[in-house]
Specification:
This protein is mainly alpha-helical and 58 residues long. It contains 1 helix and no strands.
Length: 58
């Protein structure tokens, strides 16, 4: 293979690697955002007074 052809192949491989990493970072960021949103939703849904008092009449 000539040098020009090898250069093209190497550049294509680097582009594919960089693209894969960029997609992976986007997926990780989306996962983090989803986890944060779920955590906030769970924290907001919890009633801290629930189960603290028991009303009993005999």
């Amino acid at each position: 293979m000539d040098i020009a052809g090898m250069s093209v192949v190497m550049n294509q491989n680097k582009l594919m690697e960089d693209t894969g990493l960029a997609v992976m970072k986007m997926a990780m960021n989306t996962g983090k955002e989803t986890a944060q949103a779920m955590t906030e939703m769970i924290e907001k849904s919890v009633n801290p007074n629930l189960g603290q008092h028991l009303d009993i009449r005999v």
